[in-house]
Amino acid sequence: MDAALPIVCLARHGETAWSMTGQHTGLTDLSLTEQGDRNARQLGQRLSGQTFGQVFTSPLKRATRTCELAGFGAAAEVDRTLVEWNYGKFEGRTSAEIRRERPDWELFRDGCPGGETLDDVRRRADCLIERIRPGADNVLLFSSGHFLRVLAARWINREASMGGNLLLNTASLSVLGYEHDLFHPVIRLWNDTQQFISSQ
Predict the structure, then answer these.
(1) How would you classify the pairing of strands 173-178 and 185-192?
(2) Is residue 2, in this structure, part of any structural domain at all?
(3) For the residues of 178-192, what is the DSSP string, one character each?
(4) Which of 26, 29, 70, 188 has the greatest CB tally within 10 Å of its CB?
């Protein structure tokens, strides 16, 4: 691949108490666990040596703390576009609990009562993509799992619902970019929790 083409690194925040239990964490402003703090520092080590022209973070504490501990706090701009899906009445509940009431419920199809629809989240992702593509510089984003899954689907011009098929762990790194030229957006790396990131 052409190393001159820009990349967009997606950093999901480190572990929280609710990510451990599988509770939907939208706008609830949880802190990282001790393991989450370690996750964030490891992200910094893995991103060491990368150059980013722009760094953006969700305003939620789990993202801003991950950004800070990874070493990018001073360079980051807080952007509300990057907040997690608003789960409305499903905030704090697990998928298993929700499906006991609504057995056929699917987040990436049905959205959340009192919260955001899939189309709401898609519009936010599309707005962000318009701002960062095409650009000459590498970009680093700190955000939450479900929003980043929608963002990745939209980056490659797929329906937002495809995000439902893109598993994303806490403290993972993913890389969006291009193949050959700026007219061919691709997912270069997904849900990486072990390898070092390289744009080469």
Answers:
(1) antiparallel
(2) no
(3) ESSSTTSEEEEEEEE
(4) 70
- List the pLDDT tens digit at each of the 200 positions of the chain: 345 789 999 999 999 999 999 999 999 999 999 999 999 999 999 998 889 999 999 999 999 999 999 999 999 999 999 999 999 999 999 999 999 999 999 999 999 999 999 999 999 999 999 999 877 799 999 999 999 999 999 999 999 999 999 999 999 999 999 998 888 999 999 999 874 344 33
Integer Cα distance of 162 and 156 in angstroms? 10
Q: Cite the active site residues.
A: 13, 84
Backbone φ, ψ for residue 189 (5° rounding): -155, 140
DSSP assignment letter at 121: H
Residue 197 in domain: no
CB 89: neighbour CB atoms within 10 A?
Answer: 11
Q: Give CA separation, 3 vs 136, 182, 198, in Å.
A: 12, 12, 9
**DSSP state at residue 198:** -
Is residue 200 in a domain? no
Is there a contact between 157 and 181 (Cβ–Cβ < 8 Å)?
Answer: no
Asked if 142 contacts 63 with a C-beta cutoff of 8 angstroms, the reply is yes
- Could you tell me the residue range of the domain that residue 41 belongs to? 8-192
d(CA 184, CA 177): 8
Find where tokens 């807080």 sit.
78
Task: Please tell me the total count of domains within the chain.
Answer: 1
The CATH number of whichever domain residue 183 belongs to comes to 3.40.50.1240
